[in-house]
Amino acid sequence: MRTMKKLFLAGMLGLVCMMPLQAQTKAEADSAYAAGKYEDAISVYTALLKKGESADVYYNLGNCYYRTDRIARAVLNYERAALLDPGDSDIRFNLELARSKTIDKITPESEMFFITWYKNVVDWMGMDAWARTGVAAFVLACVLVLLYFLGNKVSWKKAGFFGALAMVVVAALANVFAWTQHKRLEARTGAVVMASSVVVKSTPDESGTDLFVLHEGTRVEIIDDTMKEWKEIRLADGKVGWMPAKEMEVI
For the segment 125-142, what is each residue's pLDDT rounded down to a tens digit? Predict the structure, then answer.
């Protein structure tokens, strides 16, 4: 028992020692970025991401790449940050800024207004924020149900009934939105072209017909991931073709 206790205490001490070290590492990276030492900051941010994904770290890493004029890398990291926290306006702004520096200007296909509206609502907050909203709405609904049953005035009972109903709807929608973002995060069908230019083919073979050319920083959606060397992709404007997997990085 004494040995187990010593091991436990040693493990806890190790965790306590690691926490300030990681915080200091993040602070050092931020300091290096503020001082214009972008390569140093890139090294530290990249090391931090190996320990776990973070929208803030991806965002900061994207800023470093943008400052060093590596636009494809900047777009990739902003896209990853936006995937984790789509409601962050700073991430969205910098992503659009980086996209404006790319060569390919792709006009998205038109879609029904309610689909666009639904996507905007889903991306209004991140997955964790929607989950917290759902929990808070459910708890509030329970409180309002109690108000309905225990209230001694008709106005209280009405407020409790309709309020609880509204909170149940909010909780349900928040959970649907969180689930939608979770599935998107798991699927990871988005990718960014990393090669300076790549010819998209009609078939997954170098002998296939040339369809169009893409340049670095362009976002594509992978619609066929069954082959190792080639991926079938779709652009926002609806164009479809095959490109080598080595010329892209998955978001």
Answer: 988 899 999 999 999 999
